[in-house]
Predict the structure.
Amino acid sequence: MKKNQIITHLSLEPHVEGGFFHRTYQSEHQTTPTDIGKPRPLLTSIYYLLSNDSPIGYLHKNRSDIIHYFHSGSPLTYHIIHPEGKVERVILGKDLAAGQKLQLIVKGGCWKATELTTGEYGLVSEAVCPGFDYADMTIATKEEIQRLFPTILDELDRLIKSVQD
């Protein structure tokens, strides 16, 4: 299938961080109220697609752990900044012999950006525990990354969402 067929078939919509998504599952079971005052589903899951016309999932941080599962298309590069400032790059894709991974766990509190560098699209699923809520997500600003990680701002600049995006 082509990217537009997948977007239509999976009912994907533009995501605030870039790319396209559709929530496929939300647990009926809930956590106890969090420190921001409301419970979360125990688990949520989405489809997430980056395309050649929306190739970056901009740098952001989530409170919850997220497991990413590769499905199809071209490989996706994940840029992860751990709380202490260590930068890690992991490629999700189907070429295991080349070191690509089929799944990736990004712990809550890490900053991450996802990038499609070749091809028409890359499709993954994400499982979030406790479940995703926009209140638990922070989109990076240049000022914040400069303050937190001044030595790596230059290499991450293109992965930070500009105000007009």
Notes: The mean pLDDT is 93.
